[in-house]
Amino acid sequence: MNGPVASLNTSWFALIGLLWTGYFVLEGFDFGVGILSPLLAADDVDRRMSLNAIGPFWDGNEVWLIVAGGATFAAFPTWYATMFSGFYLALFLILVALILRGVAFEFRSKHDDSRWRRAWGAAHCVGSLVPALLWGVAFTDLVRGLEIARGPHYVGGFAGLVHPIALVGGLASLSLFGLHGAVFLSLKTTGELRRRARRAAVLLVAPTLLAVGGVGAWVGLSIAGTDRPGGLPGAVPAVLVCAALVSIAGAGLLVARVHEALAFAATAVAIVAMSAATFGALFPRVMVSDVRVADSLTIWNAASAHETLLVMTVVAAIFTPFVLAYQAWSYWVFRQRLVRPPVTSGAHEAPVVSPPAALVTRPGGV
Q1: Residue-wise pLDDT tens digits, 133-146
Q2: Can you give the residue ranges of every domain in the chain?
Q3: Which of 278, 37, 365 is nearest to 178 (CA)?
């Protein structure tokens, strides 16, 4: 198939891949900071600084997930239906974790009690860890292949989702997001918290390299020699995985030499490369059937009508620049580093969901 129909199907597959990539790059450091903050914070002030570092961004970053899901539903409804029915339990757990995480942001500062704040801090950590792990499991499963029967519908059950390589993929996303978050926290804070975040980033480099390299090699070997009509050459995902590994190693060297901005760019490049490798290994399929190749979902048999894709393209071309401009502006406004405030007895904690009024800022941050 070729012509405008083929171009629109391919373009929307690429756009959905771009939306997921944007979500993982932006929400990835949110997840990383949430996971690491209980380990890096020496006291409640440090924990508040960690949350204030991502406070102005986290809800805007989650918009990328909503748009990615909505675009998948509209452009490839069969893919959406099959994936969400097959991954129902995993996606339900992710949704609960994201709700818990959002509530933790709002509730942590509502009561001046240390046990209350610790409880919501733990909730925020769990709400960040679960999606960081399960997104890696889900996308590794998509590339590895699932038991999809004619219909199409998923018939593998929960056991079919927890293949060993999928668990390695979950560990890869968890460690990569943790590294991304540690570098971001070192970029946004000062003093001892910054030094601890920098040390954590250096320590995370080795396990991240092992997990990302392991899942890349395993998936590459599993799809080598398989029938992938119309797909990209196998060398493309392999080169992208190698680029991610180089970026991860480079991030470790840069953060050790106190070049946090460049290190953050390097971890972002690593996430982009791994996301591109995932969608490159899938194309032109969107869900791989390991029962029969003919039962795999592709950008042709899972897509909406051409007219629907055409209308969506016009709408996306009009509104996407405004969304990108607004988010870029918000990152510019909150670019300063956070400076630890003096601790006074009996002081009440400031909310973390608004601009950090209780924290002094200075230029020279992000």
Answers
A1: 999 999 999 888 88
A2: 4-338+352-362
A3: 37
The closest alpha carbon to 175, from 141, 140, 211, belongs to 211
Strands (E), the chain: 148-149, 153-154, 285-287, 297-298, 337-339, 360-362
Counting Cα atoms < 13 Å in the Cβ hemisphere of 34 gives 32
0.85 surpassed by pTM: yes
Distance between CA atoms of 83 and 185, rounded to whole angstroms? 34
Question: Which has the closest alpha carbon to 223: 296, 326, 328, 135?
Answer: 296
Q: Which residues contact 95 (CB under 8 A, 6 or more apart)?
A: none
Can you spell out the DSSP letters for 42-106? SSHHHHHHHHHHHTTTHHHHHHHHHHHHHHHHHH-HHHHHHHHHHTHHHHHHHHHHHHHHHHHHH
Residues 50, 37: contact at Cβ < 8 Å? yes
